[in-house]
Design brief:
The chain is 27% helix and 24% strand. Helix 11 runs parallel beside helix 12. It is globular and about 75 Å long.
Length: 503
Amino acid sequence: MNLNIKRTLLAAVTLTAGISGACAAPPENVVELNVTREKISEGFIGNGIQFGLYEHCHDKNSYWGKGFNMWMDDAMWDKTFERLDFMRPGLVRTMVSQAFFSNVGKDAEGNTRFDLDHNIGVAEKWLDYCDRNKITVLWGEWGTGKIAEITDPVWAKAVVRFAGHLIDDKGHRSIKYLTGVNEPDGGWTEATKGKYEPWRTANENLSREIREQGLSGKLSLGAPDACPGITGTKFIERTAQDFSEEPGVWNIHIYPYTENIRNGSYERSIRQWHGILGRHKKLVIGEIGMKYKQGTPAKEENLRRAKEDPMHKSDTLGGSNMFVYDFFYGVDLADLYIQCMRGGISGACAWMLCDAMNSSPGQLMRRWGMWNIFGSKMGFPEDENIRPWFYTVSLLSRYFPAGSDILDIEGATGEGLRAVAGNLGGEITVAVVNNSDEARTVNLRINGEGKRKLRYYNYFDDDRPTDKKQLPVPKQIRKTDLSKTVTIRMPSKGFVLLTSLDY
């Protein structure tokens, strides 16, 4: 596999948004979209990303620092933050291991010793950024038993104590929610083996510790971190029965197969799962991505690419998604985000920002990132390039900021055509995805008043403008009469975003 992958994609041609005369669709493919005042959700928390703390490569004393003489230096952090500055995430999820941070071994009596400032520098660097940029952090512990079993009150005390240290002693008030165990409903999860009872005990202990350590009103649970699309609804049903009030937000993960995105079914699934958990709490997606069904050509191709990675750094046991290099992944993720927003979520974190964030001490990476920030140090500088899917996900983060109301769009659930709108203080954003093989002409009625300056972004295979730093730029910026119909000509497979937000 060459990292400059020659992609085998469905054909896509140039988009001209709001201008006549390009790729005219036949009359039967004209779609009428009407932005309504009906609020799907209010007080949006924000879209964003999974951000890992480079636990194996954060400094020169890390595994990679000692073993490979490479670690996150200031220039790499600067590049990462510059790209995030464009994205403007409203919500991020960061999971840690207490064994890496505060747990520093056993004393003579065999009791676990803690140093709350052990390895804390990388956490503070990240949380300083979140504090400055008013980003909501869903903080969590992966759930390993290296401190104690998760059912042991010692475990919950340690997890909450470290979070409290960051919030109260270090002043990182961006941490709002706490997740105790990653994907507790999965048989692959070491701490629970997919069983509900150990997680329930751990969650009860975490809730008690939040109260007893004086963190009520500052920190609440983000639960259950389950995967109902993979394991079914039993786990979230029991969560709703036992923990109706404790969580500050409901939090689930989704990794649908390609066909479940493209057939438009995920909006309905999100509504179902939110209904089971309870709509009295907001729902966020702690991890959002896509996978490929066993035995399909896509699954086989993904494995082939991982095995033939010229860097020899890709996990080949199913932990990598090699299609993050492909244009179509950006279309599918945009479609999935839009369906979830139409389904009523209050934010979603894409898995994940950088390949090296989820890696082994030996540099094996579960490739799923928007780039690999270690590309140059590994001898493959092109692997630091921004991958296509950053384009759509960054725009859906940047232009659906915290506090937005998510609005319904009539006509937005046709075959392969989905759309959603956001309103923040009278500023409007509309996102439209065409995930079909046919060209569409979209007649969009925003139902606003007067002329406004709109930014028009295009994401198509041969029409996705960027600047010299590979960051998205508008196809055009022009005055648009919001009381009149805006015509968007969309070829197959693509995404358009229009916004009056002036940045």
